[in-house]
Amino acid sequence: MVIRVNVAEVVDNLVKDHDVILSSLKVLYKVINTDRPDPNDVKLLIEFFDAFIDKCHHAKEEFILFPTLNLRLFPFEGSPVYVMVSEHGIARYLIRMSSELLRAWVEGGDEGAGQALINYLRLLADHLTQHIKKENDVLFQAPWRWITWLVVSRLMA
Ligand SMILES: [Fe+2]
Ligand SMILES: [Fe+2]
Prior knowledge:
The chain is mainly α. The chain has one domain: Four Helix Bundle (Hemerythrin (Met), subunit A) (Up-down Bundle), CATH 1.20.120. A two-stranded antiparallel ribbon has the order 1-2. The chain is elongated and about 55 Å long.
């Protein structure tokens, strides 16, 4: 199957996602900087990170933009896309760890898990902040941004 990708439109859409994600990270920092974070607030944030950041936003980058760049402009190995995909994996791991630690804290009454959870969420927030900065300030500013149409084979039929 072949799809046509309007790179400028895709990048605009991804940058709008970044604004939403950065707003959610501000909320996260506020929640984890309180003396005793509310588990319900933390649960809602982790669910949002899993659904929107991992399964929606990072999926859009990995299924649409990045394959287009790799198949049409430069190979995956050693490219900025290699770094971005690796960082998505780190984010996915931190989200999953946070979810498991939340369960151990709330359902198991494990206070140590609660403290570890805050540390993992801070790592996640810092990681996503720097990841978005790299995409907004470097990758998405590259000259290919202004190529109107690229045609790629869709890998996932
Ligand atoms: Fe990304
Ligand atoms: Fe992104």
